[in-house]
Write a structure and sequence with these properties.
31% of the residues lie in helices and 23% in strands. It is α/β, with parallel strands linked by helices. The chain has a single domain, classed as Alpha/Beta hydrolase fold, catalytic domain (Rossmann fold), CATH 3.40.50. It has a 9-stranded mixed β-sheet, with helices on both faces. Helix 1 packs across helix 6. The longest helix is centred in the middle third of the chain and has 19 residues.
């Protein structure tokens, strides 16, 4: 068990997790809630980070405090090399990792499973679920990378019309990968229930660099409320 103390003096408790029985291998950390609500979340990271990023740790901790079980794990491209962005052609294998992680968590908990992550990890999750909607019950997406910075015409939304699972998007009002107005317009192409939760003043990383934020807890509560409205137990 790992126990850390955040800048907000909150104890972050999680357990190393590994499943090496098949390929791709799954390595990360398991957050076990004090009282399990029957739903689990698989979270992964962006192109420049890993599953130990401050954002992923704090969001996973907040979700566990809201009674979700959480697996945050490293995508296959990050297991292959500790630094650098995904190499061209690696996305399919990263989606294989997402598929396997979701299946492992489903077998482990037996309840509803939600998939998502930050930026690249969230985008790959949406692409996977657009093709395999039966894999999970919904999506949790942090800073979806709508387009590359300063290239608003290069939208990453061609799969949106195929999304048949509820999707919760948390997005900063200063995110260079997509404005709030651009996100609102793009999400109209999703036929499933969805919501855009605006994080005022936040950039692509969502968390402030030098101050304590209650943003992870707010995201957890908003996500919980969204699920209650769209897919009640």
């Amino acid at each position: 068990m790992c126990v850390q103390q955040s800048s907000a003096t909150v104890l972050l408790v999680f357990t190393p997790f590994a499943d090496l029985d098949a390929d791709p291998a799954i390595r990360g950390f398991w957050h076990d809630p004090a009282k399990f609500n029957g739903s689990s979340i698989v979270l992964t990271h962006g192109a420049g980070a890993n599953c130990q990023s401050k954002l992923l740790v704090e969001v996973a901790t907040a979700l566990a405090a809201s009674s979700f079980a959480v697996l945050r794990f490293d995508l296959p491209f990050r297991l292959a090399r500790p630094q650098g962005p995904p190499r061209p052609g690696s996305a399919d294998r990263d989606r294989q990792g997402l598929r396997r992680a979701a299946s492992i968590v489903k077998a482990k908990t037996g309840g509803r499973v939600f998939l998502g992550g930050h930026s690249y990890g969230g985008r790959q999750s949406t692409m996977l679920v657009a093709v395999e909607p039966e894999l999970v019950d919904g999506l949790l997406l942090l800073s979806y990378p709508l387009h590359p910075p300063r290239k608003p015409a290069e939208l990453r939304t061609s799969h949106f019309p195929k999304l048949a699972r509820p999707a919760f998007f948390a997005h900063g009002t200063r995110d260079p990968f997509g404005t709030i107005a651009e996100m609102q317009s793009a999400l109209q192409g999703i036929p499933a229930p969805h919501i855009l939760y605006e994080v005022e003043g936040a950039g692509h990383g969502l968390l402030p660099k030098r101050s304590v934020s209650d943003m992870p807890s707010r995201i957890a509560l908003q996500f919980q409320s969204f699920l209650a409205r769209t897919i009640p137990e």
